[in-house]
Model the fold of this input.
Amino acid sequence: MSMRITTNMVMRNYNKNLSRTVGGLESARKQVQSGRRFSQSYEDPTAAAKGAVLDRRYARNGDYLGAVENTQKWQDTQESVLLELNEVVRNIDRDYSTTVMNDPEGKVGRDAYAANLRELQRSMINTLNVKYSDVFVMAGNDGLNAPFTFEDGVVKYRGLDVDDPANQEALDKMAKESSYIDLGFGLSFDDKGEVISSSAFDSALPGINIVGYGKTDGKYSNNLIVLAGQMAEVLEADEFDSEAYSELWEHFRERGETVSDQFAKLGAKTQLLEATKERLTKEKDNIYEQYKSTIGIEEEEAITNYSWAQYAYNVALKIGTSIIGPSLLDFMN
Amino acid sequence: MALRSTFAGFNTAQLAMAASQRALDVTGQNLANINTQGYTRQRLDLTSISPEGASISSSPYDIKVGQGVQMEEIERIRDPFLDVQYRNQLPKVGTADAMDAILAEIGNVFDETDKNAVCQKLSNIISQLQVMASPDNAATSTSDSLVRSACEIFLDTIHQNATDIKGVQKDLIQKLNESVVPNVNTCLEQIRNLNISIKNSQILGNPALELQDQRDELIDALATYFPIDVKYTTENYGAGISVDVLDISVKLKDGTKINLVSDDMRGSIEIKTTPDANGVPGNPVSLHFMDTEGNKSIDAADMLENGVLKGDMDMVNKSEVYDNPPSDTKGIGFYIKGLDKFVAQFAEIMNKWNEPNGKLFETSDGSDEFTASNIVVSDAWMSGEAQIKIQKTGDEDLSTDYTNVLQMIDDLTNTRFAVESNGEQVFKGTLAEIYTNLWNTQAIERQASSTILENHQTVADQISNAKDSVSGVYMDEEVMNLMRFQQSYNAAARLMTTLDEILERLITGTGVVGR
Done:
């Protein structure tokens, strides 16, 4: 016995299929309008999960890019400090060496030079106490307080006399301070809760690393500012001890090399920042591409889908008009 | 030789005409109801009347002829086995439908495909902390307020989500109370009333086919709510009258049956909710069946195999791994508790790294555990009394050390935490993964439930087609019947005319010679 096809059955099945076609048309239209492959995560849970991960990576990448740009500006300030200090050192190197030692103008001349040196001392302190935003750039981890003070010829870094050997240990610790910036190098911590240095970017540059601290051979200060003061003292003496001056000046020149060294180190860090910025920008594009291919849909594909869904719908409608065809009733007389 | 009654043939013709007329009526009824929902096509059963009885004189030369056509009954063409199949399939569709609808509502809360919500706002908090983690920003009060604002916005979204998901649960309980249970009870009442009407009709000789159709529709509607067992028994009323008596029972998982309708008696169902702190009906919800004798059953919420009631009760009551002991369904409670665990972990991280500068987050109701509804920014942080601790412990004298902020960020982005329930680990992942796990779980559950729903619906449709094939009205067939019975009526009328003419000849034309 063959199956009877009743009118109700035909209508019901047609209805169901038509609404399915309409549903397909609707989702194709949504794809075209929104550019997304799906609008609710249950339609493709895997892609939605991947999309969430990519979202997070994109946000972190944005954070790192912002941090790189901010750090570049911070470093620019540090660079300008180094530039100025370098100028001063070069100044002293050029103008206060052989000229002075020959003592052409006698005490008056020497007094003038001494006064200049003292001016240069103050200028170096001011340079070292420069701020970026509201924070002192050369102060290591104590950025809210001016790092250098200069009183009665005594240079203090964060309250500690840089010449006093008793402060050597404390100053050593301060010289090693770091301000780590997370630039996406895989920031991690050791057991003591300290940042592992290779996993972040150190933006700190404690001032005493540039101008020096402590004493060599118990006699000569390592600090450029103190040395300049000591040179001025020798100049101001009634009797000019040119040998002592010469020794001081030699020592000053040696210590002056530190500034160039720090300059070079800073240069390397600047390059690292540039390279990181490039890498992060490229990564940002990559993440975006991946996101589009996971969640988004190509325009051509979306429009093709839509056209096909429309065609299927039109065909279904055409069938609909002939679904209740003539029956025997129409042929009876 | 046997005698033939002179007027005998008339009876045959008259019976034939009546049968054809009645058959046309039935065809007309079928055609009129071609679009009626739940209508079963009817058919007139005709039997031929056989000559009965002995005659005083009986001879081998007797030719006995049948006495015409008898209308036995009008019957409904229906396959009861298909009915059983259909009623077994309907509760499966019901469960999947109920669960799919609720999962769709849960999806509205957790699905972040198209909107910037919890994930985005958590990201913002981390971004603000990253901005803070630089020497120029660490110690400024602006940075602290920016992080605090990001946290406030995040908590706003969390509170909204908590309200929404709890709203889903409340709405469901309200639906059960105001719609599902009354519907079922009304169904049972209507079936009982139809039972009485049909039985009375049948006793009086009317098979009440249309009422039976109505009753079948109601039984189908009932079958979506829970698995039922339908039994017809025949009762004899003497004098050759027998009527069908209907029994409906609900089938529980362990095989027991609770009688819900028995002839003219009915039972009912009832749910009991547990009011929460504000007196609003909440979960757990228990389900009780009252049988026809008035006995109330124990809580049957977990004893149904499938059906809309099971789907709804499971989603209201169960939280899978967060139940004690763990259950088998990720109901609404699973998502509520999952969100609570996420929030608690967030508060724990932030408060831990801020010791001893004071708590950054506290509970609004004073309880020890953080939930999505009670987490707030602490009063101390709001007033500026407490601020984010930026320095590493032991380095508090360094004004711009911010190692602690880096630790906070690390915990918020990289550290994997274990989510536990009843002492067992339920999930392990970073903070953001704990939330996206809820989102993904919901998506997968919904995908599964909508596929299952489609499958069950397809099977139900196939059975429906099969039923239609048997019971549906087929226009061409009915039209053929029209033609057929019209012809048979014509033939019967012709027979009557012929008989009439014969008798006319006999009565007025025989034995008249020369008139």
Q: What stands out?
A: The first strand of chain A starts at residue 131 and ends at 132.
